[in-house]
Amino acid sequence: MRSVPALAAACATAAILAGCSNDTAGSGSAPELPAATTEATASEATAEQAADEPERNERGNIVKQLGEEAGFAGFGGQVGDDTNVLFAIDKVEVDPSCDQYGMAAESDRTLLLHVRVATGSSAETASMALGVLNPYSFSEIDANGVTHAAESGMCTDPNASITMQNFGPNQKYAGTLELIVPEANGSLILSSPGMEGGWEWDY
């Protein structure tokens, strides 16, 4: 039985960045992601562009390209304000080399996501990042259209994992996220408990 991190429950208060609205806004500028360090080119979309109502697919997810920013706000947040958490998945490595003491998946495939995160001024919203960006929030759609829940892996360096971070306000992070899924290619869905819809990437 999978154990979803306790912080995932806090994500019931989170709203998709481009789909939330509230009368209360932050007083500072919106957070900015750290520069991409992988081959993927980060999206040039600004917070103002992201504020437009996003287009969702038939599963209710916002479709993203690798390197394109996404994000969410908690209660009291508003699209594009200084309380949001932004993130981007820049690259997906399939079956990467394992760490010295790592263990590859026996029959499934390992995906290593390269992730950047930027938090805003709200410590409460920043603390939700770990509940959103963890392996158990992901699922994979295979070539037959069947959705499979992702699991956590033990192949790559755990010290590089974004899940090792203690997300605080007004900070930037970069790291990896290891998933175990049935197939090497497909679509990834990220959707935490309590969220209406989520995000989706083809890889």
Automatic annotation (TrEMBL):
- Source species, domain of life: Bacteria
Location of region: Disordered: 26-58
Provide ranges: composition bias, Low complexity. 29-49
User: What name does the UniProt record give this protein?
Assistant: DUF4352 domain-containing protein
Q: Which organism is it from?
A: Prauserella endophytica
Highest classification ranks of the organism: Bacteria, Bacillati, Actinomycetota, Actinomycetes, Pseudonocardiales
